[in-house]
Amino acid sequence: MKKIFLIALLLPTLGFSQGKTDTIAVYSKFMAKELKAAVTLPEGHQKEDKNYPVLYLLHGGSGAFNDWHQKVTEPGLVQRMATEYKLIIVTPGVGPASYYYDSPEMDSVKYESYLIEELIPQVDQNYPTLAQKESRAITGLSMGGHGAIMLSAKHPHLFIAAGSMSGVMNIDTRMWKVPEDFRTLRLKGQQEMLGENLNYEAPEFNPYTAVGLTDKMKENKLALIIDCGVDDFLIETNRQMHQLLLANETAHEYIERPGAHTWQYWTEALPVHLLFFDKYLKRD
């Protein structure tokens, strides 16, 4: 049986006037362990007899479920966005460098199944959500950008819109502007998780990487927003994704602006994504 536990307020100082953020733990039968997530509700939700749209907001490769609450350069940004847009924001926690997929090689890496089959149903069961595709969006930073694009492409019945901030659109580290030792370390981890499924060559891109799912994105017709800083080491993977989507005529919003792979950039990017999603999320 699936289990969910309310642990505590993520930020104990939050009161009614600022909304509410819970830390929960959800047991994953796929990985035989509990994983934490934060669930933020808008200000005034206690007085409103209504359900809300939901945004799933994913962290990066070495991050945690509370990154979006503790590392943004504007304290309380997630709570402010939840209240301003009248929605619930869920920030799940997953393993480092897991890319939010199910590894064909490692039973300990089944994060796609966890999010899709365990976390989302548990949130819908325990919080006042509008449990429908039309009221659910997903985005994230870096590895979380990859996760958001990948999960929405593969599970279009669950999401109306998806986004990526400085996302790893292609897990091929040859496209990353990083030191060789970092590239080698990440490549080794990808080989361990994907085994013989590791394939970087176009047009047969690795099906576990976002750029390998552009045909699904065209077919699904989800609302897409992709942005990346011009000084980000992942800028070329984002430009590649943009060109692939242009080539197959998939509608999307693509943004480049000044910035690098930093929390200052993602703090500024989140309100842009919320403004975009607000055009598509249904509230009834």
TrEMBL record:
Pfam families xref list: Esterase
Top-rank taxon, per record: Bacteria
Keyword Hydrolase: yes
MF annotations from Gene Ontology: acyltransferase activity, transferring groups other than amino-acyl groups; hydrolase activity
Keywords attached to this entry: Hydrolase
UniProt cross-references to InterPro entries, sorted A to Z: AB_hydrolase_fold (IPR029058), Esterase-like (IPR000801), Mycobacterial_A85_antigen (IPR050583)
Full protein name: S-formylglutathione hydrolase FrmB
Lineage of the organism: Bacteria, Pseudomonadati, Bacteroidota, Cytophagia, Cytophagales
